[in-house]
Design a protein that fits this description.
Its cofactor is Mn(2+). Keywords: Hydrolase, Manganese, Metal-binding. Belongs to the peptidase M20 family. It holds the Pfam family Peptidase_M20. GO terms for molecular function: hydrolase activity; metal ion binding. This protein is an alpha/beta fold. It folds into 2 domains: about 270 residues, Zn peptidases (Aminopeptidase), CATH 3.40.630.10; about 110 residues, Alpha-Beta Plaits (2-Layer Sandwich). The protein contains 9 helices and 16 strands. An 8-stranded mixed sheet has the order 1-2-4-3-5-16-6-15, sandwiched between helices. Strands 10-12-8-13 form a 4-stranded antiparallel sheet, covered by helices on one side. Strand 1 and strand 2 form a beta hairpin. The longest helix has 23 residues. The two termini are about 15 Å apart. The mean pLDDT is about 95. It binds zinc ion (2 copies). One zinc ion binds next to loops.
Length: about 400
Amino acid sequence: MEKLFTLLDENYEEMVGIRRHLHEYPELSFEEVETPAYIAAYHKKLGHEVREGVGGRGVVALLRGARPGKTVALRADFDALAIQEENDIPFKSKVAGKMHACGHDGHTATLLGLAKALNHMKSGITGNIIFIHQHAEEVAPGGAKPMIEDGCLDGVDVIFGTHLWAPTPIGEILVKDGAIMAAADKVEIAIQGKGGHGAEPHHSIDAVTLASQFVISAQQLISRRIDPLKSAVLTIGHFEAINPFNVIADRVKLAGTIRTFEEDVRTQMEQELEAVLNATCLAFGASYEYRYTRGYPPVYNHQKETEFVAQLASTVPGVEQVKTCPPFMVGEDFAYYLEKVPGTFFFTGAKSPEWETAYPHHHARFDFDERAMLIAAKTLGKATLEYLKD
Ligand SMILES: [Zn+2]
Ligand SMILES: [Zn+2]
């Protein structure tokens, strides 16, 4: 393992360079062109077998060890977000309105740096390593699903992935068996009332009061209907009635997100949200449209592989603590890989000790401590080599 760590230390400057290059040229989900081309070229130079356009815009590279054996897949996503960067850094985004504000530039640099190190060690490797570079993680339906349908997991025995995590101090690795990230669904609603004069409510059906009542009642699903030992989040983030102040609204549009961990809770939210909507509208003679769209399923880590990574991570240079974390209510399409093959997804702490607080992911001032890439690469690399060993 010492050899892997030394090689990665030697690759660190290059990894930083790759990260900063990608950071300057962010591309949005399902619009990635230069990024996958850059990744494919890097792997080709290393002599890996490369497949481009996998499931749309993904890149899959294969490193064959010296002898046949098991196959490990490692995944990094590479899309950016529609955010105008506000950081004042030398490698600030050169593209207006687009920014790597989730650290996917770092994920890609980590995986490329690791690919180079493992390539140097291939004469001693039994088995195969598949590098899955995934497009479009940020926007459902996401890139993972079509990449799997296009065969990126064929022959894979195990998959490992990590997210650089800015809220967590560098040196910490967060693991969790079972659900680590939530299902992320979307609901879109329109309430159709009957517009009228603001002074004559009895001749109208006020869509604004009905929508308001629905938003409040729907929160009672969380407090009164969901099993208190399970969890769900409902956030109605969009409430739209484009209407003059003295006119009763004809129509209100709502949209929101629902986060859950269990299938039964997810189904309950989907059904009972509509029941509340139906009852609210029925009482006052309004009608409605209801559309519930299932996004990514929950990220469900496998026990054996999680324990495997937790154990080996504690002796990776730079790792001071391996902690079991509570699940996060954010979503990730890594979930789809774990529905097909065993594996685990963990967080690599990336908050610099110099920062009092870190800006959250998806913030215009988001950044991470680049040294976390080295820790992530060493942990993923060690997991790969140890898994292939037995
Ligand atoms: Zn993100
Ligand atoms: Zn992300």
